[in-house]
Amino acid sequence: MNRIFKAVWNESNGTWVAASETARGKTKRSSSRAALVLACAVAASAAIAGQARAADWVTDADGSLSAGLGSTASNGGVAIGWNTQATGNGSTVAIGDYANASQDSAVAVGNGAQAGGEFSVATGYGANAAQDGALAIGGLAQATGSQAIATGSQATAAIDGVAVGANSNAAAQGVATGTGAVAGGLGVASGYGAQAADNSTAVGGLSKASEDSAAFGTNAQATGSASVAVGSASNATGDNSVAVGTQATATAQNAAAFGVNAQATGTSSLAAGSAANAAGSNAAAVGANASASAVDSSAYGSAASAGGAGAVAVGHLSNAAGNSAAAVGELANASGESAVAVGSLSQANADATVAVGSAANASGSNAAAVGANASASAVDSSAYGSAASAGGAGAVAVGHLSNAAGNSAAAVGELANASGESAVAVGSLSQASKDATVAVGSAANASGSNAAAVGANASASGDQSSAYGADSKASANGATAIGNGAQATGQQSVASGQNASADVQGVATGAGASAGLQAVANGAYSEASAAGAVAVGHGAAATKDGATAVGENASASGESAAAFGTYARASGNNAVAIGANTQAADNNVALGSGSAATQAPRDSYTGYNLTGTQASKGEVNIGNRTISGVAPGLNDDEAVNVAQLKSVNSKLDGAVMYDPKPNGSIDKTSVTLGGIGASAPTTLHNVAAGVEGTDAVNVDQLNSAISDADNPFFKAQGDRASEGAKATGAHSVASGANASATGDNASAYGANSVASDTSATAVGANAKAGFAAVATGANATASGVGVATGFSAQAGENATAVGALAKASGDSSAAFGVGAVAGADASIAVGSQANAGGTNAIAIGLIAQAAQENSVAIGQGATATHANSVALGAGSATKTGAQSNYAAYGLSAPQTSSGEVNVGNRTISGVAAGSADDEAVNVAQLKGVSAQVDTVTQAVDGAVKYDRNPDGTVNKTSVTLEGDGGTALHNVAAGTAANDAVNVGQLNDALGQVNNAVVNAANPFVSAEGDRDTEGASSTGAHSVAAGASASASGTGAAAFGAGATASGNGALAAGQNASASGNGATALGSGAKATADNAVALGQNSVADRTNTVSVGAAGQERQIVNVAPGTQGTDAVNLNQLQQSSSNTLNQANAYTNQKFDDARRDAYGGTAAAIAIATLPQAVLPGHGMVAVGAGTYGGQSALAIGVSQLSDNGVWAYKFTGTTSTRGQFGVGVGAGMHW
Q1: Is the pLDDT of residue 561 over 60?
Q2: Average pLDDT value for residue range 308-331
Q3: From 198, 305, 1033, 1155, which residue has the greatest number of CB atoms within 10 Å?
Q4: What pLDDT score does 277 carry?
Q5: How far is CA 746 from CA 139, 409, 910, in A?
Q6: Which of helix, strand or coil describes residue 147?
Q7: Residue ranges of the Trimeric autotransporter adhesin YadA-like C-terminal membrane anchor domain (predicted)?
Q8: Which long-range contacts (CB under 8 A, 24 or more apart) does 774-777 make?
Q9: Contact criterion met (CB below 8 Å) for 325 and 340
């Protein structure tokens, strides 16, 4: 068994002997030192058994022990070995040949070991602990500085240094652990061959850290100034560089590499992730295999690559190869300069291209593709929407599966297709398939050259054809259909009106109007169904070739028949019916309302006053009317007028005649309507269409010519003279009255719409769009690159406004919702009537308001009216905003805030306990402070306090002292102002002046009233003064003023009716005031001062406040409530800080001691007979660390074991222990 022994003094032989620890014995002086000596001696006997034996020991009178030739021990020391010296004070120990322990409490164990400093320990061959507190363990170990520790063969440690391991070296305050480890001043080197320069740390085999650097890991190298390398073979060679991870490398200044094989070789670069590479200056590569090779480039995501200067790549396998390019999303690729690709598989392969969306592709220069699978493959092309495609130069495609294949084409809407050059297709399924075609509306189709189809399902399939209106159709060349369901099926036909229809060269105008070949139908439900027929008027019908019907429900049903007037009927061939409700049969003429010409032609009849038979083709019936204005007849079959009847020689005044020549002959080249000298022009009616070059033309021909000569592509109905559409820009389109498209590739649709700059689009009445802007909706307005959608929506430069009356006037602002307003740069307003009025402001929610710069309002009715402030939640509103130099509750110093967050009287839950000054606190912390405040309150209860007003507030005009019999105020300075307190000295001076006054003079200084005989004042004490009826001053130097006042104490003062000062030096001021104790002061009526050296301003139940007390400045001055509160707060804070500090120090010291115990517990011990062991252990506990060093040896026979241990901790504490034991 193993039993521990202790040293016991043997009185019989005068020596120390070893006894069981259970044995009892008498103690001797310096018993602890003797025990240490004996333990060391026992250990030494096992260590060097052949050189010194028990029989050789020499015990000196001072209790020292020596064994060995030439050994010397003094002052209770132990020297064992040849020429061994233990000469220091305090039980020094030297064991081994030539070992030397020359200073107080030094220990040297081993041949040639040297312990030259106080409390130094040297163990091992040639070990040297040269300075105070030094520890050297191991062959040739050198601890050359004070408090140095060198453990291991040839280990070296300077002042306060620690070197553990063979050939380890620690400079001043350095720590080197491991074979060959080297640590400079304040450096730490741990591991085989680790090297740490001054103020650096190197942990790991062959690790190396330059000055102010840190290296952790096998072969980690932190050779740059202030660099950090963490991980096996990590390398931080640049100044201020950081490399973390196996083989991580940061070679440039300010570079940082995190991850296995991460490489940061560019100045100020960052590489984070396995094999990440940041080669460019200011580059950042974050993610496994990410690469940022150019200056200012950034790559985020596994295998992301940013190869262009200033490029950014975000996402797995993303690639930004072009300068200033950006690729965001898995496999996104931005290879062009200034290109942008956002979305997985997005491609922006040419300069200045933009691709946004999964698999979006912008391959043409300056192209933009936005949406999943969107494609913009030509120069200056744009595609917006999933699978949208813009294949033509300058083409624009907007909408899902939209396609703008032609140059300068525009396709807007789902499945819209503009395949022709300069074609425009707007609306889902719209088709503009030929050059310069326009299709606007859902499923609108413009398939003829230069055709235009506007309206849902409108179709313009003929060349130069136009169809306007839902389901309208212009299917022949030059055809025009205007109105829902209008059909222009013949060439050069015009059908205008809902469900109107027109055949070749026919014109049908009016709802339900119908015009056949070269026919004209004008009026709702009018019908000109035969070739060349004309029907004008509601329900008019001309159903046979050449027929004409003019008037409501007029009918011309015979060939070449004509009916003019409401319900006029020309039912026979060549019949003419003129007038309402007229009727005409074949070849007849009915003239005048209600006339009817129904007689059939006659071949042989007898005419009046004619002898031969006559033939008649028909009848002319005027309905029993006078025919006036009849020109004289000339031929036989002409009618004659009354004038002819009167005179056959009369001239034909009513005829249109040629003008005469000057010679009186007829000039057949000139006709003046109305006659020579006529003052007004004359209208020619029923003029046939001219055919030859010299024929007259009618109004219809003129209108047709104007229509053909106007806009060659597209133009809407309106006044041709004043409201003509204008498309003056290259490849521009204008549709609508006064529509204007003046910019290249501009489009204007709607009355008064304006597209005034390049690539502008304005859709809707009065819509206006600037450069590359889109304005959709009546009165919508969009400036450069802005988008405005909705009635009266307004969008400024680069802004977006969506919703009726929405307004985004700030640069890059956005407003979404009815009446939403984003009025400042980069502001955002979302929600009906939301308003973001400050730069970078955000307002989200119905009527939310963010009025100032960087303000945020989220929630219905939330209002943020202060800069940099936030209103969060419905109805929340900021109140104060940022403040400077404001007084915060409980803080004495002025405070400054950046802004405000208001949550609208809502609970904020889940708040962690704050630790820093600017962190929020929770209720649990508040409860803790409340407990502390309770303690302070108890202290304040004993202080002098102001009285309180009935409402509970402090009344600083009143102080009531609460002492029984009054309270004395001491060390009161002499008052100078009218409202200052006075001291006794001032009072005595005043009394002296009164005593010297003339009492009964005509104008006395002192006057009193009473019965002189019975109420005379009495001043019986030496130098006493009494003034007032029955006043009495019996004490030496006492003064009594007032009727019945009594000053019986020496030096006492009583002033006031029945005031009494009976204590020596007491003062009673006030009617009935009593100062009964020595040096007590009673101030005020009925005040009582009954305790020595106190001031009382009242009595029990009659307390008063002391008000207007100035802050005290000296130790004996009175303090006011403000000082008390401040002092209480400071005292509490200081007490807390002091207590916390002491508690923390005690806790850390205890943790350091625990860590030292753990470190000692980890030390292994020699277990083989005749063998020794040097061991090192480390421990940590509660954030503190400790290092333990132990030396143990087992005797050759295995019976005796001894052990020496030393510890040091991060708390600066050192400990040494020696023990011995025996086996049996």
Answers
A1: yes
A2: 90
A3: 1033
A4: 94
A5: 94, 11, 56
A6: coil
A7: 1164-1224
A8: 777/804
A9: yes
Amino acid 1013 reads D
d(CA 1006, CA 829): 86
- The four Cα atoms 377, 378, 379, 382 give a dihedral, to 10 degrees, of -70
Q: What are phi and psi of 435, to 5 degrees?
A: -60, 140
* Its pTM surpasses 0.90: no
Assign 3-class secondary structure to 99-115: CEECCCCCEEECCCCEE
Answer for the pair 858, 871: CB distance below 8 angstroms, yes or no.
Answer: yes
Write phi, then psi, for 39 (nearest 5 degrees): -60, -45
Q: Is the pLDDT of residue 403 over 70?
A: yes
Kindly state the helix (H) or strand (E) to which residue 5 belongs, with its residue range.
strand 5-10
Q: How many residues does the chain have?
A: 1224
CB under 8 Å to 376, separation ≥6 — which residues?
Answer: 353, 355, 361, 362, 363, 364, 367, 368, 369, 382, 383, 389, 390, 395, 397
Confidence of residue 636 (pLDDT cuts 50, 70, 90): low
Residue-range domains of the chain with CATH? 1-147 (2.150.10), 519-600 (2.150.10.10), 712-793 (2.150.10.10), 799-905 (2.150.10.10), 944-974+981-989+1016-1118 (2.150.10), 1155-1223 (3.30.1300.30)
> What per-residue confidence (pLDDT) applies to 789?
74
* pLDDT for the residue numbered 50: 37
Whether 56 and 49 have beta carbons less than 8 Å apart is answered as no
Question: d(Cα 209, Cα 188) in Å, to the nearest integer?
Answer: 9
pLDDT for residue 610: 56
Distance, CA of 729 to CA of 750 (rounded, Å): 17
DSSP collapsed to 3 states, 893-951: CCEEECCCEECCCCCCCCCCCCCCCCCCCCHHHHHHHHHHHHHHHHHHCCCCCEEECCC
Question: The tokens of 687 are what?
Answer: 């003029």
Cβ(1213)–Cβ(1152) under 8 Å? yes
**Count of Cβ atoms closer than 10 Å to residue 604 Cβ:** 9
Better-predicted residue by pLDDT, 701 or 927: 927
Angstrom distance (rounded) from CA 277 to CA 281: 12
pLDDT in tens, 1005-1026: 456 677 777 888 888 998 887 8
Neighbours of 309 (CB within 10 A): 18
Rounded CA-CA distance 556/779 in Å is 47
Amino acid letter for position 962: E
> HSE (CB half, 13 Å, CA atoms) of 529?
13
Q: What is the pLDDT of residues 11-60, one digit of tens each?
A: 433 333 434 344 444 343 333 333 334 444 444 443 343 333 333 567 77
CA proximity to 137, closest of 152, 157, 126, 118 = 152
Please classify residue 175 by burial: count the beta carbons closer than 10 Å to its beta carbon, then call 0-12 exposed, 13-18 middle and 19+ buried: buried
